[in-house]
Amino acid sequence: MGVTLQMNDVLSVLESRGFLKQCTDREALSRLLETEVVSLYCGFDPTGPSLHAGHLIPLFAMAHIARGGHHPIALIGGGTARIGDPSGKTEMRKMLTIEQIKANALSITVQVQHFLSGRNVTAGVVDNADWLAGLNYIEFLRDIGKHFSVNRMLTFETYRMRMETGLSFIEFNYQLLQAFDFLNLYRNNGVKLQIGGDDQWGNIVAGADLIRRVEGGEAYGLTFPLVTRADGKKMGKTEKGALFLDPSMVSPYDFFQYWRNVPDEDVEKFLLLYTFLPVEEVRELGRLKDQEINRAKEILAHELTSIIHGTAEADKALEAARAAFAGGDGSGDRSAIPSADLAEGELSAGLNASDLFSRTGLCASKSDARRLIAQGGATVNGRKVETVDDIIDASWLEGGELLLRAGKKRYFRMTVRS
């Protein structure tokens, strides 16, 4: 992890790496970080079985702040997930069962602990279901709800956006519950800082305000910018969906490839946000141009894949990527490339090209496969598939496998079995 940062360097480190968007009172927070060990928290609602690329920013930020000598707490939203956060959403979240939320909370807790422990960070993990699930609603409204102005809540961007498409009363309660989380952690864990994405600004400010009203204490909020890609594609989205951290949902190879193939313009920004490489080294990598920038992309992909999946998996992904890009000459270890078995008899009989591609992770459907082929983007072992009616048979085989490629950068292996 390198040398521990001085506490008064924390905010400048976050700013220099691109993590700082808004802060409730930067000067006061800076003084606090200089004078005491600060407990802070960030929330992760278990709305799915795995964290995804969007959660990486708060995880990295927690690690950087912890390196400054402070104490992060990951809050798993087992209670708030029962309602659903309207922030950044155009429609109401699908309601999950309590059993689903508990299962998701368990798997996400493991992922958070794995990430932070791998950074030599000691972090607390709490679940807000412990204090939210048993709340008495009448008492909650009397004690907490009275401090909230509906008029002020409607000035926040989150609620103004949702007023146009419809905001349910259950979602309207979300800000009260998140603010109560902050208050509860302030009281019981000494938490004075909440961090999160900029779409959480209204909720964070509400929590700090609630602490002032109820306890007469000072608490702070800090948000990160919402990360976008230079090419306009949605951050962390692949052809198959979200870029999950669970290797059973997105293979380490596919995870590696996502970062290896980011736009040139994003490389420096992503190296700052998604690695722990020194800023000076990142600036040097960011100055690379043309083909040389690919070296920086490999470093980005390898560093981040190592952090999430371990160095061994990152090495395998790098080797497989280089072997695939070498032109399918059979050299190098391609075992990390996603693969499936194909019966020798089936290949001997011949398969329609669009059928073959639709059976891989390269295309979501036969229509996607036909479109890919029609646009000239499909190859098998370096040989272009000319039409949707091409038949792939044993004559296409090299080294006992078919290496399928979609576009310039996505690969899938079909290993032939007898």
Annotation keywords:
single chain, 418 residues, Rossmann fold, Tyrosyl-Transfer RNA Synthetase, Structural Genomics Hypothetical 15.5 Kd Protein In mrcA-pckA Intergenic Region, Chain A, 3 domains
Detailed description of the structure:
This protein folds into 3 domains: 218 residues, 3-Layer(aba) Sandwich (Rossmann fold), CATH 3.40.50; 89 residues, Orthogonal Bundle (Tyrosyl-Transfer RNA Synthetase); 79 residues, RNA-binding S4 domain (Structural Genomics Hypothetical 15.5 Kd Protein In mrcA-pckA Intergenic Region, Chain A, Roll). A 6-stranded mixed beta sheet has the order 1-6-5-2-3-4, sandwiched between helices. A 5-stranded mixed beta sheet has the order 9-15-14-11-12. About 1% of the residues have low confidence. Helix 12 packs across helix 16, helix 13 runs parallel beside helix 15 and helix 15 runs antiparallel to helix 16. It starts with 9 loop residues before the first helix and ends with a strand. With 418 residues, the chain is an alpha/beta fold.
